[in-house]
Amino acid sequence: MELNELKVRLKIPESDTSQDASLKIDLEDAIDYVKTHCNNSFPGGFPSSVKRGIVLVVKSMRENNNVSSQSLGDMSKSFFEGATMKEAHKYLVQYRRARIR
To answer: What is this structure's pTM?
Structure first.
């Protein structure tokens, strides 16, 4: 997976290069995480659902919101800690290989 594909999947215009340096690092970290989590080096390349998982791992790493619940008058919002990472794991579960000890 390359930076330009990550940007498309994150809906970041390719012409916007302001985040490229940090996105490259986040992408490398996410790929390493996915390979380790799945115990799979994906020698034939990443299937589409694994790419979606990688994007969600990047998104999770970039989230700064730790709000669990907030109310203001009749408006409220809640965020579940780790929800994006849990969603990423749903895409990766079928590619996990058992670790032999």
So the answer is: 0.81
